[in-house]
Amino acid sequence: xxxxxxxxxxxxxxxxxxxxxxxxxxxxxxxxxxxxxxxxxxxxxxxxxxxxxxxxxxxxxxxxxxxxxxxxxxxxxxxxxxxxxxxxxxxxxxxxxxxxxxxxxxxxxxxxxxxxxxxxxxxxxxxxxxxxxxxxxxxxxxxxxxxxxxxxxxxxxxxxxxxxxxxxxxxxxxxxxxxxxxxxxxxxxxxxxxxxxxxxxxxxxxxxxxxxxxxxxxxxxxxxxxxxxxxxxxxxxxxxxxxxxxxxxxxxxxxxxxxxxxxxxxxxxxxxxxxxxxxxxxxxxxxxxxxxxxxxxxxxxxxxxxxxxxxxxxxxxxxxxxxxxxxxxxxxxxxxxxxxxxxxxxxxxxxxxxxxxxxxxxxxxxxxxxxxxxxxxxxxxxxxxxxxxxxxxxxxxxxxxxxxxxxxxxxxxxxxxxxxxxxxxxxxxxxxxxxxxxxxxxxxxxxxxxxxxxxxxxxxxxxxxxxxxxxxxxxxxxxxxxxxxxxxxxxxxxxxxxxxxxxxxxxxxxxxxxxxxxxxxxxxxxxxxxxxxxxxxxxxxxxxxxxxxxxxxxxxxxxxxxxxxxxxxxxxxxxxxxxxxxxxxxxxxxxxxxxxxxxxxxxxxxxxxxxxxxxxxxxxxxxxxxxxxxxxxxxxxxxxxxxxxxxxxxxxxxxxxxxxxxxxxxxxxxxxxxxxxxxxxxxxxxxxxxxxxxxxxxxxxxxxxxxxxxxxxxxxxxxxxxxxxxxxxxxxxxxxxxxxxxxxxxxxxxxxxxxxxxxxxxxxxx
Length: 766
Ligand SMILES: [Zn+2]
Ligand SMILES: [Zn+2]
Known about the structure:
Elements: E1 5-14, H1 20-30, E2 34-40, E3 43-50, H2 52-64, E4 71-80, E5 88-90, H3 111-118, H4 161-168, E6 189-193, H5 203-212, E7 217-220, E8 225-230, H6 234-244, E9 252-254, H7 258-264, H8 269-276, E10 282-286, E11 303-307, H9 312-321, E12 325-329, H10 341-348, E13 354-358, E14 370-374, E15 377-382, E16 392-404, E17 414-423, H11 433-449, E18 456-460, H12 466-472, E19 478-482, H13 484-496, E20 502-512, E21 518-526, E22 531-537, E23 540-541, H14 546-550, H15 552-563, H16 573-577, H17 579-591, E24 597-598, H18 601-611, H19 623-631, E25 645-646, E26 654-656, H20 658-670, H21 675-701, E27 705-709, H22 716-728, E28 732-734, H23 746-763
Parallel strand pairs: 2-5, 7-13, 9-11, 10-14, 16-18, 18-19, 20-27, 22-26, 27-28
Antiparallel strand pairs: 1-3, 1-4, 2-3, 6-13, 7-8, 8-12, 9-12, 10-11, 14-15, 16-17, 20-21, 21-22, 23-24, 25-26
The structure holds zinc ion (2 copies).
């Protein structure tokens, strides 16, 4: 007995609802240790007793090999007198235990569950709702806390005796797996025809048959309905596109496995890891020239968004098909994705020939996440299903709980408390009733799930954003207005756990400036608590206001008129193509009526895209810039000079005239250069002006860290050239890896700014 030791261990972090107790049980009993494990409000508590060797092994294993879904933030261990008790037990949860258990994100089907689904002798053979503690639906089915089955959309399914046995057995993989179910007690698949009648037979086999026949199907997934068509079938994909009223925006494709994905796209090591990871995002990859994908799937795009199956239903369907499917959000045009059955039947009835659906309700609409790869690391384009609501760690505490309301387009909101930031799922563009309601309900849902009562509410400065209006209506909290591009830079700082100050380069579409003009090509000196505008692109008029966003040729007209001082070469294609309205639009720009001035980098990309004949009018946000990037020849290293001048001779902020670049682009084009070469030189020149602007700020401030943020930096060619140039000039470059550089990341930045200001006010330091 004297050789026995007893250790008391406490584990904090994401350790509840992730199979931690059965893992500890298995580990301890495997090492022949006695003791107990339990949950309480702070996390997991453990006592183990036995020989010093096995106890040490236990501690090492706990640290080095925790269960896959756990995130350990802190482990502490102390000693207790040995008691001589034998056996290992799972202690009852203390009152309130589990209450604060963080709701985990949805997790892709694990290998163990897949093996059961493949085993004809298993009771879950080919069962489309198989899940366990290590995988399955989570965030999308949670209605309330504590995270227990009655508070999920599985509440209506009473567990059968077999499932209940697994659920209560600490040695079982399904111990306390809230959505556990089987064919005897769980949800059921159905194939429903356009007339609302259920088709007799195996729903998966029927769905596959119809897809192979060229039909468009609505498929109920984890966070909403998808629309599906066989990816190689042009007739089906074109039908899907026209019925959905989506003209050009690329569709994503689901492949059965890595091998199938590899026949569609170049899949490197980092891409393979992302594709097979438990979050299962859509990864944007370079498409193989011989890929069997219908031209309508991603028109004019060198890249393709690819994902692998993440629910048992997807696995079954993709195997039955034997080929990839287009799988795109179940909606018409820009509406949010349909997720309730009645709503889906109504909204998608005119698009889908049939519905592959089921009776497990979806509580929270959650779109697929989208990732690009830069230097082998993820750059999120949309952070949603699989990642949300996993908290992002904040490097500094929030004195009081914060709600940040985000921007207007690609909206997310963020709740922050202590040192955790809960960035919401992708809400979408706050332009209609549906998304506004998703926003309001989402805020309430998150506040309840994470027990956050906001005392500080951060918002954009734009008075017309619905998210701003929502914030201004909150009378129960202190309001903090955060400038849009400061929020972008702060979000990059928070993403990297850095406080600044840094040189923040925020290049995007449009954001409201502190002077009431539209910013978007900004050089800031920024920390979390404040910023100064050091420089920006010289302002140009946007003739027609919002019309200039939809019609990039209008920006070309404004830029060309300034660049050539009214003497625009009439031979230019963009002038000839838009001759009928050219003079009127130029006049609008000159008069400055309905032509707000902007320093936006996105609008400069638009202008050049139109000049190069890439696109005069767009059908989705950012399209002209996306296509300009694709057009550019990545091998081209030439560039154009773009002198940094000062708009106000007395000093900052300096201005960089985009007109110099536009003039160089036109001269090059008129001299016979290929548009793909000109597009590349333009990218290189913008990278050059970013680096020159940073040089200038460094000379004035001594700062040498640069944060690159804003939607324009989703352009990987620009990002590569700008980051490379900055690094060669000795700058330390910070990029986004956890939240998107686009407006989807703005809420995190707002929260970081509001918390820093609160720290300053309450604690006297940011
Ligand atoms: Zn599983
Ligand atoms: Zn069952």
